[in-house]
Amino acid sequence: MQIGANSLLQEMQTLTGEIKPNGITPNITQQVANTSGSDFGSLLSEAVGNVNALQATSSSLQTRLDMGDTRVTLSDTVIAREKASVAFEATVQVRNKLVEAYKEIMSMPV
Length: 110
What we know:
- The protein has helices at residues 5-18, 40-66, 74-106.
- It is mainly alpha-helical and 110 residues long.
- The protein has a domain at 49-110.
- α2 (40-66) runs antiparallel to α3.
C-alpha cells in the first residue's frame, strides 16, 4: 500500500477536525502554534529533496571518478556515498514510523 505524504497529511487533518474530546473544543493555551511558518508537508518534501540532492551528488562524484577526473578523490566519493546512504536510511525509518502511526490511528475505535 503506497501512502503519499500529502494524502497522509490530508487524512490526519480530516481526523483532527472530527475529533473533539467530549464535544469540548480545546482552549487557546492547549493548542500548539506553528511558529516556524512551515507545515509538515513542506518540511517532509524539503527533507526528501535534500536526500535526493545528496544521492545526485554522490552519483555525480562516482561518475566523475570513474571517468578519471583528477579533481575528485576517492575519499570525497566514499564520504558523499555514505552521507547519501545515511540520509536515505533515516528517511526510510521516518517513513516506517509514519506508516506505523497511521495504522495505529486507523485501528483506534471511534
